[in-house]
Amino acid sequence: MSTNRKLKYVWRVVVILLLNILIIAAFMRTNNNSVQTLSKVGSTGTEVRQIQTRLKQWGYYKGSVDGIYGTATKNAVIAFQKKNGLTPDGIAGPATLAKIGISSSGGNTGGAGGFSQNDVNLLARVISAEARGEPYVGQVAVGAVILNRIDHPSFPNTLAGVIYQPGAFSCITDGGINAPVEDSAYRAARDAMNGWDPSGGAIYYYNPKKSTSQWIFARPVITVIGDHRFCA
Question: Residues 153-179: pLDDT tens digits?
């Protein structure tokens, strides 16, 4: 084989190898982009502060809310993930953010979850009246039930419509909705509006120690939080 022919052959091999390398690199980049990893160690900003704030409220995070995703934040996320049946990788991806109640677009602006501040105030009043003394997660669950009803065909399709539906909530008839609102109820309202649903999609809840309705006792129970049973 002549020298020129050998050089052409070598260059052809080199070009083919380079093309293969570029194709593999492009594939790996595309594949990596398809995995949405959001806040993780090294991340900073508003979303990280939201994560820290909520995990601190729930007792998972003990550090300062500084918006820096360090080891302490990662460990808190892992603990939360284990508790909620998520992959404990320490990365606040879409599934973890949804469980925490934060939208991946950074949510929690304005009122919460697209609701107005007046809606937050109204929902907080009902939560405070209906779930006073309940654990925080139970307060969020009561708010979630009210929001679940908005999307259910058996109920009005607005927040005010659901809350003021005749006979729906005892706090409307006994005046409990006008009582002073606990601070935790505002946080619970925002968490529910941002998508956190500890009730598991329930549209009813009741306290078996206080309820006298045989009909509600027959509803299938999804979960029990504090003194409330949450039902489908």
Answer: 899 988 999 999 998 998 988 888 889
Name the β-bridge partners of 230: 205, 223
What's 47's DSSP letter? Answer: H
pTM, entire model: 0.54
Q: How far from the centroid of its chain's Cα atoms is residue 206's Cα?
A: 24
46-100: in CATH 1.10.15.40: no
Q: Using alpha carbons, select from 132, 131, 154 the residue that is nearest to residue 142.
A: 131
CA triplet 219, 222, 225: central angle to 5 degrees? 110
Give the position of tokens 């990893």: 37
> Tell me, what's the pLDDT at 226?
94
Beta carbons within 10 angstroms of residue 137's beta carbon? 15
The neighbour count for residue 85, using CB atoms within 10 Å, is 9
Kind and range of the H or E element at 225? strand 221-225
Name the band, by pLDDT with cuts 50, 70 and 90, for residue 30.
very low
Residue ranges per domain, the chain?
A: 46-100, 117-231
CATH topology of domain 117-231: Arc Repressor Mutant, subunit A (1.10.10)
CA distance 168 to 154: 12
**Strands 204-206, 228-231: parallel, antiparallel or unpaired by DSSP?**
antiparallel
Cα–Cα distance measured from residue 115 to residue 159, given in angstroms and rounded to the nearest whole number: 9
Q: In the Cβ-directed half-sphere of 67, how many Cα atoms lie within 13 Å? A: 4
3-class SS of residue 174: helix
